[in-house]
Write a structure and sequence with these properties.
The complex is a heterodimer.
Chain A: E1 19-24, E2 27-32, H1 37-43, E3 69-70, E4 89-91, H2 95-109, H3 126-134, E5 153-154, E6 160-163, H4 172-181, E7 186-189, E8 196-199, H5 215-219, E9 225-227, H6 228-233, E10 238-243, E11 252-258, E12 261-267, H7 280-284, E13 299-300, E14 309-310, H8 313-331, E15 336-340, H9 346-360, E16 365-367, H10 374-383, E17 401-405, H11 409-412, H12 414-425, E18 429-433, E19 442-443, E20 446-447, E21 450-452, H13 459-472, H14 478-484, H15 487-498, H16 504-511, H17 515-527, E22 531-535, H18 537-540, H19 545-558, E23 569-571, H20 578-583, E24 590-591, E25 595-596, H21 600-610, H22 622-631, E26 636-640, H23 644-647, H24 651-660, E27 663-668, E28 680-683, E29 692-695, E30 700-704, H25 716-726, H26 736-746, H27 755-761, E31 763-765, E32 810-815, E33 840-843, H28 845-850, E34 858-862, E35 867-874, E36 882-886, E37 914-920, H29 933-939
Parallel strand pairs in A: 1-4, 15-16, 15-26, 17-18, 17-22, 18-21, 22-23, 26-27, 27-28, 32-36, 33-35
Antiparallel strand pairs in A: 1-2, 3-4, 5-6, 6-9, 7-8, 10-11, 11-12, 13-14, 13-28, 19-20, 24-25, 29-30, 30-31, 32-37, 34-35, 34-37
Helix pairs in contact in A: 2-3, 8-25, 9-25, 9-26, 10-19, 13-16, 13-17, 13-19, 16-17, 22-24
Chain B: E1 4-9, H1 12-16, H2 19-32, E2 37-42, E3 54-58, E4 61-65, H3 73-79, E5 90-93, H4 98-101, H5 119-124, H6 129-135, H7 139-149, H8 161-170, E6 177-182, H9 191-198, H10 200-214, E7 218-223, H11 228-244, E8 248-249, E9 257-264, H12 274-281, E10 305-309, H13 310-322, H14 324-328, E11 331-332, E12 335-336, E13 338-345, E14 351-356, H15 361-368, E15 378-383, E16 390-391, H16 402-407, E17 416-421, H17 426-440, H18 446-449, H19 451-463, H20 468-485, H21 489-493, H22 495-504, H23 514-519
Helix pairs in contact in B: 6-10, 6-13, 7-8, 7-10, 9-10, 9-11, 10-13, 17-19, 17-22, 19-20
Classes of the chains: A alpha/beta, B alpha/beta.
């Protein structure tokens, strides 16, 4: 193992198909037209000195180190900004060039501290490299000139510092902030020698608009912007290529290591999902893995009123196995259940569901996708034939109109958000449908053409109205419909959609969207060369979540926006492996690859490989499990890596259910809220310890490689195998790659997947079969839909039962923020808390004024389910009548408020609509006072 | 009796020496004497040492008096200046003043003659003749006409205007722009300001012709904030043009459209560099872009853009009106037509001299300028702005021609000529050139950003006699780096004044003149 340093070609890759030949230093090289001289040289293996150029950023031409001589041209043009042309003859070395380069370096060093030996970038400094390369031996300008050596260091960001005295003003940080991240937080202030990098106008990094994505730090060629971890530890000696464990973007990361200590995390330039970018979570917020709260020893207790007792793995597994078996002996095979985790690897999830089906002997398995994207699975399977997004992320680079519904990518999927913003800056048009004014509606160099500010809970009305405009104005793609879709279904749908009651005008009173605006948006999308739909939980977490997903699929099919690059229906999935956990057979009715348990052929295949009889009846979903626990039907629950006590709706109901169980086994990194109800605690491993694969929102299977040994002494899949074995069903693998081999053997869409191939190719997008390229499938449904003909489904709007009333006149909707992740178990244990120390309630100024609420007041938030208290902030992002908060902090207890309403098809909870009342509160009335003392204890 | 017409400039240069007060005094004096007069405020004739220049209209022509002060007014009336009576301020017929008579006023033909905002005056003096012809031509024909005239960019770079227009015409794009560079920042230059204040419709006409020639529909005039009068005049002229249907949809009854807007700079010299100007127009920090891409292909907002200086654009109507040959017949070699030269600094007769290329510096300095204002010998002139070379008297017979100047390492530039007498310290002037660069550098490229500051420090050591030879060698290296290594002409040309000062005036740097060395 050694540190991986990627070759930098200096300027971005040219996209041209046309090639040209140039001769550089006597070597002829063939490159794509539009390639810079610098990149052409690099491709020929010739390295031209450079400081401001990097292949992640557009050529800038400021450092003037990369000057070359070109036959027939005057002067010494910069090779980064000069495109290579056919027949060009270039010299990269000459006495004249050497003198110029030395002169440039001499100027740089005349304003640079000479503390290389004690500098954090020692060994990783491009300025140092260039001084060596050009052979700088003296600086003749003396030491009495004007310098920036006294410039102050800004250490306000928790993860990196900005030492202005070392800055060479190459603008790579500023350009990275603009081009890669798209935040425009940095600028160059002042002119000439006084030019300096500035966050905002003279603000500190922390106080500025900086979102701490770290792109500036990554692209800084000197020690000016450096990770504090590198300042503390020094440079890594080896690199582990792995995959981020936060959101569904699934960024490829390089963990730079000193032994088993991470000294820095940087995004992999070759990463299929992220192409060299990361966000504040992936790049910086990995400290939780070694947080003091980590539990690394198994623990057991007879009852939840007892304190935990540390024990050995053997005893803990025996304890759990005996309890589970005893319960089954007493209450029947179906009295126990398990929940798999979208945070775990495909291999870990696969063995857990295998344990449940084979060792528990029932199908009582479900996963946290139940509470997020289960409607996606259902809706896209019904219409297209498979439970996955249609595109890869790169596809957005070809989109001309983006319809963004119920998703907030700049917070929830930041790296993809940046990619989308880049496309929008290139001129793609944007339609945002969201009750809240998310950043993408208007932010630097981004302006949505239409913001459809709909009332929460009226998605289906909106999508029907959009489709109505398409059909009634003749904007549909008849060729696509006739060739690719089921015409009977289309005819029925068309008749339904064309009804006047689905017109924007008729639905305006329901959605609150001005009909004119909606019509304009529909036309924009329908007329786009490439129209792409991206959506998030604002679509799925509704009582009509599945209906809405089908509505979007209808719209895409009607306009011919499926089956090629730049279009599609794209769920932005929440968790790192939520796609994978669903693929792996985590649902009670499906084996891996979305095959129903009642399908005899499939079941027989599994029975033969697993050498045991399997149940052909679907098991319980998570909400059924809670109900069954309360009714006494379910007695034990195995929960891996999901904090259902905090994340699931209607907290009091969940807590009562958990309390009613005889045995709860929790596997997690931390003693989470659910562990308060547990009898067995099995310590889990962080992604830095895992060895396996995650599958992201674009069906991309990425390797997760261990940077360190499991702090618990065991991989989670080993623990699962031991528990299953102890229950009487023998499961064992020597290494996790064997689990993937079994997945590939049992799952047609994974047929071509193996660790060996992943290591070779970097990543694979399923379906990966004999019929697909080795890398799998970038774009789904290209020639025909997976189900054959696309299926239009009638999407009748049915209003949620959750409505604003006199007592609860406002609608609460929930979401996430950039710096925190879901229930915050990880991010709250990092310095990301500086950006979001608490959940706040965003409220419109008018609603606040009516209630006498001032910005910063503590308010009570009550629904018919319960009440909690939190700080209010008056926000112009909110429309009147709607309030918003996040659910990152357990102390907020937002899910105390949320209701039992759920998607009709999948039981996905309706987190996005809760009727509430907000009132001033004198104190932070802790909702837990009404709860059992155990819960309160854990929360502290 | 018909009211007697009196012309008094309202050009900023005239205003700065009391033209408004003089106009007011003349009006008051006329009223007091119950004389009916009609005062017309014009641009300047460009004879700045004579401002405020008061002209009285006679059937045979205008008769000039100047410089007129408020105190002179009653005496002028007493003398009977309204009937062109002799007075000690009399200058005779304006057109017969040698300074003016010996010029070839093509671009500035109307400047100082007409009321700048009078649409009748403009049209009565040949206004829109060029545009009317252009409207009957194809875009390619217009570009060809400009190309054949030999017109080169008057901003300083001297790039053939017709070729630039043709490039923009040939670039397919949904939107194209015409951007007029009126960020006239060169020391000693004022021609852009004068014509914008004195003949604003000519710029509107020129930009409209450019727009029709390349297929642009939107134009911007980027004026430096230091030119409030020019800004106000241009804005009023645009308003009038819009009202008259000379701008907007279907201009002049054609099927063409062109809209025009004035944008004001924020005080950065570098925004006179075309790519920085485009950045500034886009609302960004004024910073140089690397080329390629050329603005003609990817300019304002990434679209094909004509960026021309005011003088290039105000010359286009004349070329179209009188034909390419008419213009081409002036000038020498590859420098065709006329250049409005601007005499400034230590010069007796400062002002604007529009003259065909081929005139020598000596003619400009002595025949027009009358030598140094101090009466002392002229020791050096700086041509082409602060980045231009210092020219010694031995080269005063060089003709004004882009190539001839380039052969002497000097610049015609925007036609600025700044004069110094024999008291000038050329080491300090060299230092000033580097300091100017240090102050005005956009800060993007290393040679200009750090090098200019280091240059000032090195010059200080040279002036102080600190290790002079070492520092002079270092200065030579730095100049070479600035010339070959800078991103734009700002850093690239800064060595010109420095090296020319060193070359022609070595004694000011503590060096011995090579010739004297041989003699000794």
């Amino acid at each position: 193992m050694s540190a991986i340093k990627d070759k930098d070609y200096g300027t971005p890759n040219s996209q041209s198909d046309h090639t040209i030949n140039v001769m550089i230093d006597g070597r002829t090289v063939t490159v794509a037209e539009g390639t810079s001289v610098m990149r052409a040289a690099a491709e020929a293996g010739i390295s031209i000195p450079k400081l401001c150029a990097t292949d992640c950023l557009e050529a800038y031409g400021s450092c003037r180190l990369c000057l070359v001589e070109i036959d027939g041209r005057k002067g010494t043009p910069a090779s980064c900004t000069t495109p290579a042309t056919e027949g060009m003859v270039v010299s990269t070395q000459s006495p004249r060039l050497a003198k110029l380069r030395k002169g440039v370096l001499e100027l740089y060093i005349s304003d640079h501290p000479l503390d290389c030996l004690t500098c954090a970038a020692n060994g990783d400094c491009e300025l140092q490299d260039m001084a060596g390369e050009v052979g700088l031996r003296e600086v003749r300008y003396g030491d009495d000139g004007k310098t920036h050596l006294d410039a102050p260091t800004d250490a306000s960001n928790p993860y990196f510092s900005f030492d202005a005295s070392k800055c060479i003003v190459c603008s790579r940080c500023v350009r990275a902030c603009e081009e890669v991240q798209g935040t425009f937080a940095l600028t160059i202030q002042g002119r000439g020698f006084d030019s300096k990098v500035s966050a905002g106008i003279g603000e500190s990094f922390l106080d500025s608009e900086c979102v701490s994505c770290g792109a500036c730090v990554q692209h800084c060629p000197t020690a000016t912007l450096t990770e504090k971890s590198v300042i503390e530890h020094g440079q890594g000696e080896h690199t582990v290529l792995t995959t981020c464990a936060y959101c569904g973007v699934g960024c490829s990361l390089k963990a730079e290591m000193q032994g088993e200590t991470v000294v820095r995390m940087t995004p992999d330039k070759n990463g299929g999902a992220n192409a060299g970018h990361a966000c504040v979570k992936g790049r910086f917020a990995w400290g939780y893995a070694t947080h003091k709260d980590r539990v690394t020893k198994p623990m057991v207790r007879e009852t939840t009123s007892e304190p935990w007792r540390e024990t050995t793995w053997d005893e803990a597994i025996a304890f759990a196995a005996k309890r589970l078996k005893d319960i089954q002996a007493r209450y029947g095979v179906k009295s126990i259940a398990g929940i798999t985790s979208s945070r775990c690897t495909n291999e870990e999830v696969f063995v857990v569901q295998k344990m449940i089906r084979a060792a528990f002997g029932n199908n009582n398995v479900d996963t946290c996708a139940r509470v997020c994207h289960a409607p996606t699975g259902y809706g896209l399977k019904e219409t297209f034939g498979t439970s996955a997004g249609t595109q890869d992320f790169k596809s957005v680079e070809q989109a001309d109109v983006i319809l963004l519904i119920g998703a907030n990518p700049t917070d929830g999927h930041p790296v993809f958000g940046s990619r989308m913003k880049r496309r929008l800056r290139e001129g793609a048009k944007l339609i945002v449908a969201d009750p809240r004014q998310i950043d993408l509606v208007r932010s630097p160099h981004i302006q949505a053409q239409h913001h459809l500010q709909l009332r929460p809970g009226t998605n289906v009305s909106m999508v029907n109205a959009l489709a109505h405009v398409v059909l009634s104005e003749g904007l549909e793609d008849r060729d696509f419909i006739e060739q690719r879709t089921d015409l009977d279904a289309f005819a029925a749908w068309e008749a339904f959609i064309r009804e006047e009651r689905n017109s924007p005008e008729a639905l305006e009173p329901i959605t609150g969207i001005p009909a004119k605006e909606l019509r304009a948006a529909a036309r924009l999308y329908a007329r786009a060369r490439n129209g792409a739909i991206y959506y998030g939980l604002g679509v799925t977490e509704h009582s009509q979540g599945s209906t809405m997903v089908m509505g979007l699929a209808n719209l895409a099919m009607a306009t011919g926006n499926v089956g090629r690059e730049g279009v599609g229906v794209n769920p932005l999935r929440g968790q790192n492996n939520v796609q994978g956990s669903c693929d792996m057979g985590s649902f009670p009715h499906e084996f891996s690859g979305y095959r129903h348990v009642s399908d005899d052929a499939t079941r027989t295949l599994f029975e033969s490989v697993w050498a045991t009889a399997l149940d052909g009846e679907p098991g319980m979903r998570i909400p059924n499990m809670f109900d069954a626990a309360l009714s006494g039907e379910l007695k034990a629950l195995f929960v891996q890596g999901e904090d259902i006590a905090q994340s699931d709706p209607n907290t009091q109901h969940v807590h009562s259910a958990l309390k009613a169980l005889d045995c709860v086994v929790v596997q997690d990194l931390f003693l989470n809220e659910t562990a308060a109800f547990a009898h067995v605690f099995l310590p889990g491993t962080s992604f830095l310890e895992k060895d396996g694969t995650f599958t992201n929102a674009e069906r991309r299977i990425n390797r997760v490689r261990p940077a360190m040994r499991p702090k618990t002494g065991k991989h989670e899949w080993q623990v699962t195998c031991e528990l299953a074995t102890a229950m009487g069903y023998a499961m064992s693998y020597e290494r996790s790659s064997q689990i993937m081999d079994e997945i590939a053997q049992l799952t047609p869409t994974f047929k071509g997947v193996s660790f060996a191939k992943l290591d070779q190719l970097g990543s694979i997008q399923w379906p990966c079969t004999d019929a697909t390229p080795a890398e799998g499938t970038r774009t789904m449904h290209q020639d025909s839909f997976v189900r054959g003909k696309g299926q239009f489904v009638i999407t009748e709007f049915v209003a949620t039962k959750e409505r604003a009333s006199r007592s609860y006149p406002l609608l609460l909707t929930t979401g996430r923020i950039l710096s925190q992740y879901n229930v915050g178990a990880q991010t709250r244990r990092t310095q990301n808390t500086v950006w979001h120390p608490e959940d706040v309630l965003e409220i419109h100024a008018h609603d606040a004024e009516q209630r006498g609420i001032q910005d910063g007041d503590v308010v009570s938030l009550a629904s018919r389910m319960g009440a909690t208290a939190l700080t209010a902030t008056i926000s112009d992002r909110m429309p009147q009548g709607v309030v918003y908060t996040t659910f990152h902090h357990p102390v907020t207890g937002v899910n105390v408020i949320t209701t039992e309403q759920a998607d009709w098809a999948t039981d996905c909870p309706e987190y996005k609509v809760t009727a509430v009342q907000v009132s001033r509160s004198n104190q932070r009335a802790d909702w837990r006072r009404v709860q059992s003392p155990i819960v309160a204890e854990v929360a502290e | 009796m018909r009211a007697q017409t009196i012309y008094i400039p309202k050009d900023a240069a005239a205003l700065s020496v009391g033209a408004d007060d003089v106009a007011e005094a003349i009006a008051a004096e006329a009223a007091r004497r119950r004389l009916s007069i009609n005062i017309v405020r014009t641009g300047s004739r460009g004879m700045l040492w004579l401002e405020p220049l008061v002209e009285v209209a006679l059937p045979e022509g205008r008769v000039a008096y100047g410089p007129v002060t408020v105190q002179d007014v009653p005496a002028l009336f007493d003398t009977g200046f309204l009937s062109a009576a002799k007075h000690w301020l009399s200058l005779g017929f304006t057109e017969e003043i040698p300074y003016l008579k010996n010029q070839e006023r093509l671009t500035f033909a109307r400047c100082g003659v007409i009321d700048p905002l009078s649409e009748e005056d403009y049209q009565n003096h040949g206004g829109f003749d060029g545009l009317k012809r252009a409207l009957s031509m194809t875009p390619a024909e217009i570009c060809a006409e400009i190309r054949e005239s030999g017109l080169r960019g008057r901003g300083g770079a001297g790039f053939p205007t017709g070729i630039k227009w043709q490039t923009v015409l040939d670039a397919p794009a949904p939107q194209k722009y015409i951007c007029c560079n009126a960020d006239e920042g060169d020391s000693g230059t004022f021609a852009d300001r004068m014509i914008m204040e004195g003949d604003p419709f000519s710029l509107i006409e020129g930009m409209t012709i450019a727009a029709i020639a390349v297929g642009a529909t939107q134009g911007y005039i980027y004026v430096r904030s230091e030119y409030p009068h020019a800004i106000a005049t241009m804005r009023q002229a645009i308003t009038i043009a819009e009202r008259k249907g000379w701008l907007g949809d279907g201009l002049h009854g054609s099927d063409r459209e062109f809209r025009l807007e004035v944008r004001v700079g924020a005080g950065a010299y570098i925004c006179g560099e075309e790519t920085s100007m485009l950045e500034s127009l886009e609302g960004r920090r004024g910073q140089v872009r690397s080329k390629p891409p050329l603005p003609a292909l990817e300019g304002l907002f990434g679209q094909p853009t004509v960026v021309n200086n005011v003088l290039s654009l105000t010359t286009a109507p004349l070329i179209l009106a009188k034909g390419a040959a008419h213009y081409r017949d002036f000038g020498v070699g590859r420098s065709r037509g006329t250049q409005p030269f601007q005499l400034a600094g230590n010069i007796k007769h400062g002002g604007l001299v529009e003259k065909a290329f081929g005139v020598t510096l000596r003619e400009l300095l002595y025949d027009f300028g009358g030598g140094a204002a101090s009466g002392r010998p002229i020791r050096a002139v700086q041509t082409g702005g602060p980045l231009g070379a210092y020219v010694p008297p031995s080269q005063f017979d060089t003709i004004e021609d882009y190539e001839a100047f380039a052969a002497q390492d000097a610049l015609v530039g925007h036609g600025g000529i700044v004069v110094f007498d024999d008291r000038v310290d050329m080491a300090k002037q060299a230092r000033f050139a580097l300091e100017f660069c240090a102050i005005e550098s956009c800060g993007k490229c290393t040679p200009c950003r750090i090098g200019s500051q280091r240059g000032v420090e090195v010059m200080d050591r040279i002036i102080a006699g600190d290790r002079r030879d070492e520092n002079l060698a270092l200065l030579e290296d730095l100049c070479e780096l600035l010339t070959d290594g800078s991103l734009c002409a700002m850093g690239g040309l800064t060595p010109l004044p420095v090296q020319s000062a060193l070359k022609h005036f070595p004694e000011d740097f503590g060096r011995v003149r090579p010739t004297e060395k041989i003699a000794s």
